[in-house]
Amino acid sequence: MEIFGVVGWKNTGKTGLMERLVAEITSRGLSVSTIKHAHHTFDIDQPGKDSYRHRVAGAAEVLLASANRWALMSELRGAQEPALEVLFAKLSPVDLVLVEGYKRDRHLKIETHRAATGTPLIADDDPTVLAVASDCDHPDLGKPVLHIDATESIADFVLGSVGLGRPVTVVSE
């Protein structure tokens, strides 16, 4: 499995880019899974549902299954958040795992950036950020800058970077 990340500050378009990349890359016949980091407490379960009741009662894991999908919920119950490598091991084999977030981890990444947010570029100080997907130019960056809406070009860059496509040399768009 190849791994590539999408990082950026809040409201810079990470999730939208992830969604478009999954659609574009799977349309090319490759299999893709995703991992999304949440910085806050989240719950995919609903109070009152049987699975919620099992979890609240103390179950370490609850596996919910139907004819359409299954989901495994694991409760950490005070244990440390698992490392990204541990999470990769839980996935079924695919061609590419796209990771949203985990900006401090050492896998290859592209950064999303929007001028309106006024946030600094992560790419300035992080060699694992290979390129920036932005709505503005960054002429002094020294790394490829692709337009944030140029999904096909970004997919080409990602796939080329992990060896699943032809190598791509991108000049700022």
General description of the model:
α1 (14-27) crosses α4 (151-162). A six-stranded parallel sheet has the order 2-5-1-6-7-8, with helices on one face. The chain has a two-stranded antiparallel sheet with strand order 3-4. The protein has helices at residues 14-27, 50-57, 84-90, 151-162, and strands at 2-7, 32-36, 61-65, 70-74, 96-100, 109-113, 129-134, 145-147. It has four helices and eight strands; from the N terminus they run βαβαββαββββα. The chain has 173 residues and is an alpha/beta fold. The longest helix is centred in the first third of the chain and has 14 residues, at 14-27. The chain is 24% helix and 23% strand. It has a domain at 2-39 and 81-162: P-loop containing nucleotide triphosphate hydrolases (Rossmann fold). The mean pLDDT is 93. It starts with a strand and ends in an 11-residue tail after the last helix. A hairpin with a 4-residue loop joins β3 (61-65) and β4 (70-74). It is globular.
